[in-house]
Design brief:
It is a single chain. It contains 13 helices and eleven strands. The chain has helices at about 1-20, 30-35, 50-60, 85-95, 105-125, 140-155, 160-165, 180-190, 240-245, 305-310, 335-375, 395-405, 435-450; strands at about 130-135, 175, 200, 220-225, 250-255, 280-285, 295-300, 375-380, 385-390, 415, 420-425. The strands form two sheets. The protein has a seven-stranded mixed sheet, with helices on both faces. The relative contact order is 0.15. It binds pyridoxal-5'-phosphate (PLP). Pyridoxal-5'-phosphate binds near residues 78, 139, 228 and 230.
Amino acid sequence: MVIVDELLQSVARRAAGYLEGIRERRVGPAPEAVEALKVFREPMPEKPTAAEEVVRLLDENGSPATMGISGPRFFGFVIGGSLPAALGANWLASAWDQNAGLFAASPVSALLEEVALEWLLEVLALPAGSGGAFVTGATMANFTALAAARHAVLERAGWDVEARGLYGAPAIQVIVSEEAHPSVFKSLGLLGLGRERVHRVPVDNQGRMLADRIPHVEGPAIVCLQAGNVNSGAFDPALEICRRARKMGAWIHVDGAFGLWAAASAELRHLITGTAEADSWATDAHKWLNVPYDSGLAFVRDPEQLRRAMTLTAAYLPQGDHREPSQYVPELSRRARGVDIWAALKSLGREGLAELVDRNCRCARRFAEGLRRAGFTILNDVVLNQVLVSFGSPEETGRAITAIQQDGTCWCGGTLWQQQHAMRISVSSWATTEQDVDRSLEAVLSAVRAAPAR
Ligand SMILES: *Cc1c(COP(=O)(O)O)cnc(C)c1O
């Protein structure tokens, strides 16, 4: 295995060099680097290429065209970096090449998922014993949890949706907020519940659902609430929503892609009050837990509802004494996602996780203060890790974002927040420090001042 040994040593050197460089390199890739990607456009090769050469091509042409997401000053899209332990575990798990679908195919992966699930329920303050699904992201987590919801509310109405489909089934009333994440609507579409066949509840100026505007519905119903708005970071009033939804006998689902992690911090835990009353939850591990992509999590209070919605076939697989991973997710074969998650939680511990979440939120407040002091308008209450800033008119804000991205010291994207154009700053990486915020603020302010007036 000399060849593999040399190859992996060289990959490790290249990756370490990349991660070292990313701290000082511009965050967004230079346009020339993106342009140079055209070297990859070649006909399917006839002849083999040595592995070492394949990796060299990838590093030399690919690395410069990456977005610096693993660096400390990437503030786009609420997505974190990769913790060193999670990255290392991910590499090792790739070397293992485990098929995480079946206990028999990978006892280590199945066991680490079980352990990670228990730890996750604890740090996210969700009911012990809930079922869990290790999926690709919060979109699939929403889908998976809502499939369990669909199963449960129709079963109560005497309908077996997995066997009979939705043809002739009792109608399900779905209640979401105006500010639900697009992935919730996509999930509803995939499940045959319809992207548009929903009650949309209005929101307040932070994007929080107005609980007293939830319609009273009869029969099978699902209420979706949000813990952490993707723009403002605001939380729907879970306690009040759950109280109303319970009265109607509805299933309650929480999209907490990043917001659920507020539970890890003693300072922020109050934000999720009432969330644990729900029946299912979706979150991401590749966002605030800082594990490599793709890693999302669905939790369902009653594991049996999740299993019945996701089971492959009742008879196909032997059910031993242990948790059979494929019984709880849409996929059969898949990678060992639980390994990275276990490694992240093990390396951080409760204290490290709380410190990460608290520090990111402190950094967000520091951004907001600095921008306000410079005379710009912060559009949201900075309750979590999200900051929305306006630099003036839509054109001025647009030009500012372009100038900031071109400068490259940090990276932030644009968004539309309640009809206002804004730049969104999401602080969600383990690598980000107060110094990174100060350095970014300085670059942002000088880029905005130097931006062409029109
Ligand atoms: C990011 C996000 C999603 C989608 O997550 P993916 O991991 O990209 O699929 C869903 N809901 C909210 C609130 C999010 O922030």
